[in-house]
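Quiz preparation item.
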């Protein structure tokens, strides 16, 4: 039987995948209307990130949740934090694609690292929690 929190994680993975497919339509529309046949760099990045994050959610996060030894509240909190940051990242790429002001966000960084640090800590920390829960129950 699948755990309820695993079902929610898989549902979120499906939403990320659906968003990635819609971003693929945007990418395709930009490509066919562009003189060089390409979409804006961050439209490409948003589409690719959506695909990669949806697969990471279904192939890594969901099984870690399913086979974790932690209580449901710990698992869903860690998974939601990871998926939330995946969503924030994709949304930022979409914003950069809409604005079309840069082809390299790292070159054109704004001051402040709070958001980037939160992203790093949350994604790695959430994964570490789930991995530890998996290890405690399965190894």
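Solution:
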């Amino acid at each position: 039987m699948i755990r309820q929190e695993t079902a929610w994680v898989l549902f979120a993975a499906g939403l990320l995948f659906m968003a990635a497919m819609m971003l693929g339509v945007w990418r395709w529309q930009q490509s066919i209307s562009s003189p060089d046949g390409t979409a804006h760099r961050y439209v490409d990045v948003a589409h690719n990130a959506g695909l990669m994050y949806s697969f990471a959610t279904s192939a890594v996060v969901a099984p870690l949740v399913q086979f974790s030894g932690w209580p449901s509240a710990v698992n869903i909190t860690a998974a939601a934090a990871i998926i939330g940051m995946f969503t924030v990242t994709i949304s930022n790429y979409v914003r950069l694609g809409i604005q079309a002001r840069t082809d390299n966000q790292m070159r054109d960084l704004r001051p402040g690292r709070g958001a980037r640090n939160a992203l790093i800590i949350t994604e790695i920390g959430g994964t570490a929690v789930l991995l530890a829960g998996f290890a405690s129950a399965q190894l």
